[in-house]
Specification:
113 residues; mainly beta; Immunoglobulin-like; 4-stranded antiparallel sheet; 9% helix; 43% strand; globular
Length: 113
Amino acid sequence: MCAVRDSWVGGAVPLLVHDEGRLVAALGGDSYFCWPASPGVHRLTVRMYSPHVQRAAVATEVELRPGARAYLGLSTDLDQGVQAQWLAEESGLEAIERCSWEELAAPRVARPR
């Protein structure tokens, strides 16, 4: 599963991504992170990490089939709101390619052949 934030808008404030309550990523602007996820339903929450901005977390869920991948597109707007939407695989891979920063622990996601 990958979380992708392919824009610099609001990027100075990290977005914290939790999968079933476990912190899996802290994304700045123009970055992504992928982590192994087992098949089944995953409930994710995303919130801004800022002592100055208190916003409710955005919640979403996805059901992963065995061998499937999921891509969560993340963005912030000028009002410091967080948007999260699930991307089709092609769109998710394109968003990853637009990122100029790779988190050090994130494996490069290869396009399926």
